UniProtKB/TrEMBL annotation:
GO terms for molecular function: 3'-5' exonuclease activity; 5'-3' exonuclease activity; DNA binding; DNA-directed DNA polymerase activity. In addition to polymerase activity, this DNA polymerase exhibits 3'-5' and 5'-3' exonuclease activity. Residues 9-264 form the 5'-3' exonuclease domain. This is DNA polymerase I. It comes from Lichenicoccus roseus.
């Protein structure tokens, strides 16, 4: 239902003419039963159906060209004059395409004398003036001039947003200057004359230097003599005419008011009837309206729609496929359905090393199969003939690459890497049920298949332990009886498909469709590429570090034993607790439920801050022990024997804020500011003749805080590039920034970052080594100077209490499960989470937006660089030495342009032969 006020509305405008021609040229000839050509209609319908499944908007319309002649032909008679007439087989499809739009219940808008682009411009302007926003679904370069706050574009084929960064990549200028560049370079497709000899690069350079077309033409006579100067002077009037031709008329009349464009889901019987009449059964099945067509009836007899098929199909009756012809039949069935689920079974959890033991397919709920490839069985359960792995992959390849069949997976990145490691091509298009769930409910619950099945399908799937056993009795999956293996594996595909049918429609009403479609799903391929690339490590240096850490730990151990008065196992929490609280009688000890004393880092830190040496030394020893085991030792073991690189695994659906995490190895917890952390980073090295390039957002969460809380002083400081911590100290403590001592600045820095994480007076006092009362006075002074920050924190907590989640500035829902806890400590923790989540989640959204844009930017710039790692607010690339400077500039531009805030985003870059050197 459309919102009551357009101030809350989102108008989506589909460039219908662009859809038609793309569909016509992409598909082979097709005819309806009566012989009418329908390939463009079929493609248009498919694109429209998928768009409605994928993208949310409160208002929607498809905009068409009404005819070839417009006011531009009166202005310039040769405008589009050399365009050929449409092919004869396309002409009858124009009306059918409009029928398709009507069948979906979407307004089809056109106006004689005006181009579709002008109508789009007029609607976009009206929407923004009404306080709403507009998304233009098109890749047409001419529409890029319309991009501005409140107006964005989406490429319907690449499924990628087009914003200011993409416009700059294409034209070399921002959207507000596109018409100046187009006026100079002209357009051979539309017969816009422009100035001969001036292409996009020269045009953008001139616009950047002089500002606009008139300024360029005015300056031309005084330019250095050249052919370019002569052309500008000679063709000045042609350039002026070109500008009038390319500028879109946002004063065009609106054939329908925006309020009449409110989106409603298609009427199933109406849509089914039209699809049935066109013979588009596969689309009807994919949309779930097959069988709902209104049957023909005698005149005057009311038609009654046929009920849709039931989803209550049992999870059983799966087929084991061991014959290639049978597999090919299953693949054909999946392609006919237009959507299928795929799952893989492996002999390991590392997709870069695991072998593909088998895979499963599901084409409709309750219909699935398992294809064993490497099962070996045993004497009691011998395995018969199986399809040879290479033959099975070759048979599967056309399905994986078929653009007309959606492949649905659960935790798609893992399965795609497994399939590619086995020799399969890259699958596209895909959907991921794990990420669909995560986009809507990050932090609310887990997103594993079993949990989602129980939650949404009311079904508990067969578990891995049930078919392989546990502990010492566990057997490899390759030795599981084929019947039991099929029950388990095929059910996984069946569950995945049913989850997709259940969850996918919820993205739109949950306002999570754009987040999933434009960020989470594109990241699957990007992260898979990063994992495949891996990163080199210096094994010799790591072993040297390990030995150094061992020696230092041994020295520390001797000192700790001396302080304790006896030897004990430093790794034993029980023995340590007895020494600290029983033998040394230190204060603050608390026993756990087991009866042993608690000795976690917070306990030891509190004792160390009271001046006790033993807990301080234990903390240092533990830090070295962790670095030794987690990095110095483990990284050497993680080196892939084939690639000789380390391949971390990025977890996409773990955190509640959208941040990525990594494991095996975990690269998120390397200390940033310690000497040991620096030494570990220096063990990550570039390939020969390459460098590592680091691009790191500077103080991104503080910048987001200034933006969302609207703090004038902080916004001014960031806008002017001031030292934000010195500025805060000056504002809060009333001291001049000039000549400020480091201790005062350090206090302000601790407050700035502490406030983001909801730090308490006790916590701040512990950081600064001051009494809690004094720390409380600092926090009070901070909030008194910046009351907007307190208001923001309170409003986010209230939002969490009201809805159960908070929103990032980009619309991500971060669920806060403990916000209603009766226990004050747990509720307080949840409230701190609520205050921080919009900032941490917003930072995650921004870096993900940058990551999604970077591959295309790198390719367009012709750079061989590749993205290797994402760690918090930093991206790490590997590039040939010759590309270092260009890559730094490109990464900085793309990352700083990933979001438009009221404060500047700043990215710091560096390069070197190691990760440490790049900082």
């Amino acid at each position: 239902m459309a919102p009551d006020t357009l101030a809350d509305a989102h108008l989506v405008l589909i460039d219908g003419s662009g859809f038609i021609f793309r569909a016509f040229h992409a598909l082979p000839p097709m005819n309806r039963a009566d012989g009418t050509p329908v390939n463009a209609v079929y493609g248009f319908t498919n694109m429209l159906a998928r768009f409605l499944r994928d993208h949310v908007g409160s208002h929607l319309a498809v905009i068409f060209d009404a005819g070839r002649l417009t006011f531009r032909n009166e202005l310039y008679g040769d405008y589009k004059a050399h365009r050929p007439e449409p092919p004869p087989e396309l002409i009858p499809q124009f009306a059918l395409v409009r029928d398709a739009t009507a069948a979906f219940g979407i307004p089809a808008i056109e106006l004689a004398g005006w181009e579709a682009d002008d109508l789009i411009a007029a609607y976009a302007k009206a929407m923004v003036e009404a306080g709403g926003r507009c998304t233009i679904v098109s890749s047409d370069k001419d529409l890029m001039q319309l991009i501005r706050p409140g107006v964005d574009m989406l490429d319907p084929i690449k499924q990628k947003p087009i914003g200011e960064a993409e416009v700059r990549d294409r034209f070399g200028v921002g959207p507000d200057k596109v018409i100046e560049v187009q006026a100079l370079m002209g357009d051979s497709v539309d017969n816009v004359p422009g100035v001969p000899g001036i292409g996009p690069k020269i045009a953008s350079t001139l616009v950047a230097e002089f500002g606009d077309l008139e300024a360029i033409l005015a300056a031309a006579p005084s330019m250095k003599p050249s052919k370019r100067r002569d052309m500008l002077i000679e063709h000045a009037e042609a350039a002026r005419i070109s500008r009038r031709l390319v500028i879109l008329r946002d004063d065009a009349p609106l054939p329908l008011p925006i309020r009449e464009l409110g989106f409603a889901q298609p009427d199933p019987p109406r849509l089914a009837t039209w699809l049935d009449g066109m013979g588009f059964r596969s689309i009807s099945q994919r949309l779930g309206v097959d069988g709902q067509a209104v049957p023909a009836a005698p005149a005057g007899t009311p038609a009654v729609p046929v009920a849709a098929g039931s989803e209550s199909v049992p999870f059983a009756g799966y087929e084991t496929v061991t014959d290639l012809a049978v597999l090919q039949a299953w693949i054909a069935e999946a392609q006919a359905a237009g959507v299928c689920a795929i799952d893989t079974e492996t002999d390991g959890l590392d997709p870069m090393r695991a072998n593909l033991v088998g895979f499963s397919l599901a084409s409709t709920p309750g219909r699935a199969c398992y294809v064993p490839l490497l099962h070996d069985g045993d004497l009691e359960n011998p395995v018969g003939a199986q399809i040879e792995s290479r033959a099975a992959i070759e048979a599967l390849a056309p399905l994986l690459t078929d653009p007309g069949t959606l492949k649905v997976l659960q935790n798609a990145k893992f399965d795609l890497l497994v399939l590619e490691h086995a020799g399969a091509p890259r699958a596209s298009p895909i959907d991921d049920t794990m990420l669909i769930s995560y986009a809507m409910e990050a932090g609310s619950h887990g997103h594993g298949m079993d949990e989602l099945s129980a939650r949404h399908l009311g079904h508990t799937p067969v578990t891995y332990d049930q078919v392989t056993g546990t502990g010492r009795n566990r057997i490899p999956f390759a030795r599981v009886d084929l019947k039991r293996a099929t029950d388990y594996a095929a059910e996984d595909a069946d569950v995945t498909l049913r989850l997709w049918r259940t969850l996918r429609p919820l993205l739109r009403p949950n306002r999570s469709l754009a987040l999933y479609e434009q960020l989470e799903r594109p990241l699957i391929r990007i992260l898979a590429d990063m994992e495949q690339a891996g990163i080199s490590v210096d094994a010799v240096e790591l072993r040297r570090l390990s030995e150094d850490f061992s020696q230092r730990m041994a020295v520390m151990e001797t000192e700790i034993h001396r302080l304790a008065g006896r030897s004990f196992n430093l790794g034993s929490a029980k023995q340590l607790g007895e020494i600290l609280f029983d033998e040394m009688s230190l204060p603050g000890g608390k026993r756990m439920k087991t009866g042993a004393w608690g000795t976690d880092s917070s306990v030891l830190q509190a004792l160390a801050e009271q001046g006790h040496d033993l807990p301080a030394r234990i903390l240092e020893w533990r830090q070295l022990a962790k670095l030794k085991s987690t990095y110095a030792d483990a990284l050497v073991e993680e080196i892939n024997p084939t690639t000789q690189r380390v391949h971390t695994s990025f977890q996409m659906a773990i955190t509640s804020t959208g941040r990525l995490s990594s494991n095996e190895p975990n690269l998120q917890n390397i200390p940033i500011r310690t000497e040991e952390g620096g030494r570990i980073r220096r063990a990550f090295i570039a390939a020969p003749d390459h460098v590592l390039v680091s691009a790191d957002y500077s103080q991104i969460e503080l910048r987001l805080l200034a933006h969302v809380a609207g703090i004038p002083a902080l916004k001014e400081a960031f806008a002017e590039g001031q030292d934000i911590h010195a500025r805060t100290a000056s504002e809060v403590f009333g001291v001049p920034m000039q000549g400020m001592d480091s201790a005062t600045r350090r206090r302000a820095k601790a407050i700035n970052f502490g406030i983001i994480y909801g730090i308490s007076a006790f916590g701040l006092g512990r950081q600064l080594g001051i009494p809690p009362g004094e720390a409380r006075s600092y926090i009070d002074a901070y909030f008194a100077r910046y009351p907007g920050i307190r208001d923001f924190m309170e409003s986010t907590r209230e939002e969490a209490r009201l809805h159960g989640y908070v929103l990032t500035p980009f619309g991500r829902r971060c669920w806060i499960p403990g916000i209603a806890e009766k226990n004050p400590a747990r509720r307080g923790y949840a409230e701190r989470q609520a205050s921080n989540a919009p900032l941490q989640g917003g930072a995650a959204d921004i870096i993900k937006r940058a990551m999604v844009r970077l591959p295309a930017a790198l390719a367009e710039a012709g750079l061989a660089a590749r993205l290797l790692l994402q760690v918090h607010d930093e991206l790490l690339f590997e590039a040939p030495e010759s590309e270092a400077e260009a890559l730094q500039a490109l990464a900085k531009r793309v990352m700083e342009g990933a979001a438009s805030l009221s404060v500047p985003l700043v990215v710091e870059t560096g390069h070197g032969h190691s990760w440490g050197d790049a900082h």
